[in-house]
Amino acid sequence: MKATSQSAKANDRKARRKSAPAPAPVADNTAADAFAARLLAWFDVSGRHDLPWQHPRSPYRVWLSEIMLQQTQVKTAAPYFERFVASLPDLRALAAASQDTVLGLWSGLGYYARARNLHAAAKLCVERHGGELPRDLDALTALPGIGRSTAAAILSQAWGDRHAILDGNVKRVLARYHGIDGFPGLPAVERQLWALAESHLPPTRMTDYTQAQMDLGATVCTRADPACMLCPVQSDCVARIQGRTAELPVPKPGKAVPQRYAQVLWLLDRGGRVLLQRRPPTGVWAALWTLPQHEDEEAAERWFETHVDAEYADAETLAPVAHAFSHYKLELRPRRWRAVALRARVGDNDDLRWFARAELAALGIPAPIRKLIEASA
Ligand code: SF4
């Protein structure tokens, strides 16, 4: 009888422990407590300690790196980071820069809303926070382009504050480690992952712990083919034990990505300069310089006839260029004319200008357009 009642009490205690603060479906609490310690020990030996934003580490440099890394891998972002801080070394310099300078420095990294938000946020920091990034989660998330996970990563990496992050890498690791079913983008699944991320926070070493989570996701628990044999938490990882690493995290429910087309007009004048048009301030490729572009051939021809002193039919047709956005695929269909001029009444202006080849490097130009111009000029 006594034994039964003791084991009932033990079960009760276990049940209470399990109810706070969020359910961990399979991995138990003892394992959860050890998670951070094992990750930190692994990080000391195998983590990334030589990233450009770590030396020196400042709130501005951490913030810039976090924004660049939102959609870009470390090895791609690193040279852009170096170039950016060489030109705009602190938040005040960024706030005072022109939009063209910021977009030019970002050119080639893609997802340009990140650069526009970064610039707008720097200006707000000058207005509201004395030219510094605020050391406060709510004040950071009130700035453009900074969500909860990015704010937490800035606070923990710049100041060592104790906040959980939940970027794509961490979602993947936790979904696998705890065997979480359900697409992580669903609010209920995301809430569960946040609670798990918070339950693992170590009492100290937040800067290292935040980097360790990112490093584990980027170098060991990779999307395809995770290197479980090298993983510090392999002994109780649910996905590894159950052979479900390829299934988890659950992918986004299938949705066909629409295909769109655009006619691209590539005009060169007698001196070999290229005509570029500045995109409108909102929408895809906002405020970047591109080749004049139209949704269909009829619109392209109409624009050509009103703007260019040449025959539309005299074009060279070039191979199409495919580009994938997050929400649709775009096929660019370029045509090129050499030694042409604009009609006298059009002239070039602030949003439609001839540029010499040497000027292109400093301009914000979408990557597929830059590639097209540079590959076939
Ligand atoms: Fe990821 Fe494998 Fe480590 Fe589990 S054991 S967290 S699946 S790398």
Mind explaining what this structure looks like?
Helix content is 45%, strand content 10%. The chain has 377 residues and is an alpha+beta fold. It has 15 helices and 8 strands. Strands 1, 4, 5, 6 and 7 form a 5-stranded mixed beta sheet that branches. Strands 3-2-8 form a 3-stranded antiparallel beta sheet, with no helix packed on it. Helix 2 packs across helix 12 and helix 10 packs across helix 12. It has 2 domains: 213 residues, Hypothetical protein, domain 2 (Endonuclease III, domain 1); 116 residues, Alpha-Beta Complex (Nucleoside Triphosphate Pyrophosphohydrolase), CATH 3.90.79.10. Iron/sulfur cluster binds next to helix 10 and helix 13.
**Strand percentage:** 5-15%
Give the helices and strands as they follow along the chain.
HHHHHHHHHHHHHEEEEHEEEEH
Overall average residue pLDDT: 88
3D shape: globular
What is the class of the largest domain in the CATH system? Answer: Mainly Alpha
Radius of gyration: 26 Å
Low-pLDDT residue spans: 1-32
How far apart are the first and last residues' alpha carbons, in Å? 88 Å
In short:
With 377 residues, the protein is of the alpha+beta class. It has helices at 2-19, 29-46, 59-68, 74-87, 91-96, 99-106, 113-128, 137-141, 148-159, 168-178, 187-199, 206-219, 238-241, 297-307, 367-376; strands at 259-267, 274-278, 289-290, 293-294, 316-317, 321-324, 329-337, 352-355. It is 45% helix and 10% strand.
